[in-house]
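Quick one: sequence plus zinc ion SMILES, need structure tokens.
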Amino acid sequence: MSWLATQPTPGADVHVLPVDDLTAHDENDTCTCGPTTEPVERPDGSIGWVITHHSLDGREHHEHA
Ligand SMILES: [Zn+2]
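Reply:
Sure thing.
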């Protein structure tokens, strides 16, 4: 089980997705998993967004146990 960070285009929002999850994820902030959106400062000082999706198999709880 692992996680994948994707950025469709340079400067776009970054999505952190669980690999091989039980469901498909949409790469937007209205995904059915209820992703967490956090602002991050880019090297040039502008603000981008990291959208962290939640796995249906609950792997994040195992990783932090
Ligand atoms: Zn999702």
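The chain has a mean pLDDT of 87. The helical segments are 59-63.
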